[in-house]
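dumping this here so i dont lose it
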């Protein structure tokens, strides 16, 4: 399907330069671009797997998903650095000590990332074209709405009291739903509802900011011997993550009601 192939090609052109940069240094934008690219490619090929279950999507994506997880630790360090600089109101020396410890952890995690690199994935992501999957355009078009509705129903399966883990899974499902919608942006007759996209982006932002704080709390707590330096920062992030999650709940309810009326 040419329009999906155009989307796939655009993704690779944006993602592969980030991968090549990461071989040299854990530059923040390169880490971000690579991880976003892998998320979008994963959404595209999981969509194709839903259409044709015999497609070995996990095998195709395994080398890059493995790197994605490893480099996620470096991304956590970048987020922790940003939040320490933005939120720390205690002794300047405490902040400097925390930042130094984070930078040291990032260097170690980068070494682990380099050790995981394999010769065949050092320069670019290699993954079959849409045509090479053998899935016809007609099959994709016939099954598209069913797959999207199934993704939506998984995301919309909401309980009044959700654990942090459930909210994290919900956040992942929302991103996958969003990325799957985006995959058809070059396809004739496919239009993206700007009202829906606005709600998705707002919810993604709130859940992303919430998750950044949850992750950074865990990250900072894991730094050995720095409990006193991190105490005030952690308390502030815990307060913020509660507020952000409550806001996300409000926007989620609005989004669910809006979707039901469409």
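and the seq i came up w/
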């Amino acid at each position: 399907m040419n329009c999906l192939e155009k989307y796939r090609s655009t993704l690779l052109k944006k993602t592969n330069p980030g991968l090549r940069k990461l071989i040299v240094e854990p530059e923040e934008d390169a880490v971000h671009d690579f991880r976003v690219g892998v998320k979008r490619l994963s959404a595209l090929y999981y969509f194709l797997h839903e259409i044709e279950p015999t497609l070995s999507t996990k095998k195709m994506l395994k080398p890059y998903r493995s790197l994605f997880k490893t480099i996620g630790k470096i991304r956590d360090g970048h987020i922790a650095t940003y939040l320490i600089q933005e939120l720390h109101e205690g002794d300047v020396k405490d902040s400097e000590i925390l930042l130094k410890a984070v930078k040291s952890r990032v260097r170690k995690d980068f070494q682990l990332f380099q050790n995981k690199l394999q010769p065949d994935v050092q320069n670019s992501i290699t993954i079959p074209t849409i045509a090479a999957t053998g899935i016809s355009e007609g099959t994709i078009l016939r099954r598209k709405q069913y797959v999207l509705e199934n993704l939506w129903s998984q995301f919309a399966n909401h309980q009044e009291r959700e654990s942090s883990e459930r909210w994290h899974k919900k956040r992942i499902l929302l991103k996958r739903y969003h990325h799957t919608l985006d995959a058809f942006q070059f396809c004739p007759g496919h239009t993206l509802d700007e009202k829906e996209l606005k709600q998705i982006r707002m919810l993604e932002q709130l859940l992303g900011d919430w998750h950044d704080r949850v992750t950074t709390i865990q990250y900072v707590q894991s730094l050995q011997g720095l409990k006193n330096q991190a105490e005030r920062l952690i308390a502030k992030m815990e307060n913020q993550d509660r507020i952000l999650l409550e806001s996300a709940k409000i926007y989620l309810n609005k989004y669910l009601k809006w979707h039901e009326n469409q």
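The radius of gyration is 20 Å.
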